[in-house]
Model the fold of this input.
Amino acid sequence: MVRCPECAAEIDVDEDEVEEGEILNCPECESELEVTQVHPVHLILISDDLDDEEESEEADEDDKEGDKEEEEDEEEQVR
Ligand SMILES: [Zn+2]
Done:
């Protein structure tokens, strides 16, 4: 039995059924957990807040085009 590093919920992981590098989802908090070790099973939390190497997308707030949605009345005409 393994515990979720995030919420400490018990996760039923069979070490015969997982592989190193496999990604699991915690049934409780839905965090993504990576199997770093299988004997015994050890999980780490994968956080997408951590950007060790790649800073991929910077917040781009230059995207202010007049984006008004036109209101269309899509009433179906019943004949
Ligand atoms: Zn959890």
Observations:
- The two ends are 65 Å apart (CA to CA).
- The longest strand covers residues 32-38.
